[in-house]
Request: fold
Amino acid sequence: MPVLSALVAGFVFGIGLVISGMASPAKVLGFLDVGGRWDPSLALVMAGAIAVGAVAVAWAERRNQTFLGGPMRLPAKGGIDARLVLGSAAFGVGWGLAGFCPGPAIVALGAGHAKAVVFVIAMILGMLAFEVAERARLRGPMPPATTGAVE
Reply:
């Protein structure tokens, strides 16, 4: 059942991205062009998404279980740090250069857009690089190698 609910939620999200124009790089780049021919329509999409999300999170914070009976696991609240700022900046630069963010890129990939193929491959490589770097960071410095010889 969790797989089916994830599939339905993803389908509804994808349809929302297509209807709102978020899967169109031209529409997104028009929104980001605040010094030129700015298209503010995606600001309304974002405001609507934030409003729905805020209500859903407020409701979820009062629950112990999901609709499917699993434990409710919400992310811990954290402060603003260098990793958050740098990650946000990298996300914004990628969004501005490509006109895609991850969700719309997957939708555009499914629609057969060649630009989305390149973006999704680069996105996957970036996620893999993060995983490697994060595992190395969490492991900390490696202990000195030993030869097995008695010293």
In short: Residues 2-139 form one domain. The mean pLDDT is 86.
